[in-house]
Amino acid sequence: MFTKLYKRIRLLNKRGKEPYSSLYKILHFYPDNIHLYEQAFLHKSSSVDAGNGKWLNNERLEFLGDAILDAIIADIVYKHFRNKKEGFLTNTRSKIVQRDTLNRIAVELGIDKMIVFSAKVCSHNNHMFGNALEALIGAIYLDKGYDTCYNFVQNRLIKEHIDIDKVAKKEVNFKSSLIEWSQKNKLEITFDLIESFNDHDGNPVFQTCVMLTDIKIGVGIGYSKKESQQAAAKMAIRKLRSDKEFQQFVSELKKKQTGENTAEKEFEELPEEATSEAEQTAC
User: Fold this and answer.
1) Is 70 a catalytic residue?
2) 15-43: burial string, b at 16+ Cβ within 10 Å, e else
3) At what angle do helices 99-109 and 128-144 cross, to 10 degrees?
């Protein structure tokens, strides 16, 4: 209590104390080294020349935060699901730290309003929020240590923004689900790379389409082939679940190729998608 009061009094004499109060709303504690947190919110599109040919941005902190977040989430999941096997724990951790989840949490914490970035950054680069959250975790670790970092992840991220049991049950691997669906219905599904290019920041971008026999049913873009395939599969599943005319077409195609009918429930069994708030509000 006295430590917190001392830091409040000390900060009254600091210039530009607004960053401290803004960070306190996110962290629920005051930082010691404010520069680490400023760097955590500095997107590479607005890198600062640090001299000696080095540019300062949040990429190194993001790398550190990503590793620490994985370790902390692994510990939390391990303790929460005491009787589950390794495969289940790994899958659950992956769902928690997936980009959509981190983007959503970053927006809900207000991190999106703290990021410094260039106006030229493309709107499809919605990784920015989640990356900044990971960089923030890296900054907390360097500034306060592992215990404070653990408490932040557990209390501010997990307890306030994630239902672990619900996440564990949620299907997020759209590609696997689509392939399983196609095999069950004896229909051929393929993933074809349409093109690859670099964005304004020089990052490789991939565009993939999903083909049902010779018909394109989904297209996705991502910063890796795997991510673009997931996005394409997600679009295809959305079409299969919601487009009644397309469902009728698929049913007729299946009957023509296999002689079997397609039950309506087979479309309903495909996983539902959850649109992240970060995707809706991405720059």
Assistant:
1) no
2) eeeeebeebeebbebbbeebebbbbbbbb
3) 70
264-276 residue pLDDT tens: 666 766 766 543 3
Q: How many CA atoms lie within 13 A of 232 on its CB side?
A: 28
Instruction: With H, G, I as helix, E, B as strand and everything else as coil, classify residue 243.
Output: coil
pLDDT digits (tens, 9 = 90+) for 78-124: 999 999 888 788 878 888 998 888 999 999 999 989 998 876 654 44
Task: Measure the CA–CA gap between 232 and 239, rounded to whole angstroms.
Answer: 11
Least confident of 26-30, 126-130, 227-231: 126-130
Position 59 scores a pLDDT of 92
- CA distances to 38, 137, 147, 189, 264 from 182, in Å: 48, 40, 47, 6, 15
Which residues pair with residue 48 across a beta bridge?
56
What is the pLDDT at residue 154?
97
SS3 43: coil
Exactly one of 38, 100, 112, 134 is catalytic; which is it? 134
Mean pLDDT of the chain: 83
Catalytic (active site) residue 66: yes
DSSP three-state, residue 261: coil
The CA radius of gyration of the chain, in Å to the nearest whole number, is 22
Check residue 273 and give its pLDDT.
55
Amino acid symbol at 36 = L
Residue located via tokens 């007729």: 252
Kindly state the tokens that stand for 17: 């104390």
131: number of Cβ within 10 Å: 26
What's the distance, Cα to Cα, between the start and end of the chain in Å? Answer: 39
Structure tokens given for 44: 């590479």
Given 66, 100, 112, 143, which residue is catalytic? 66
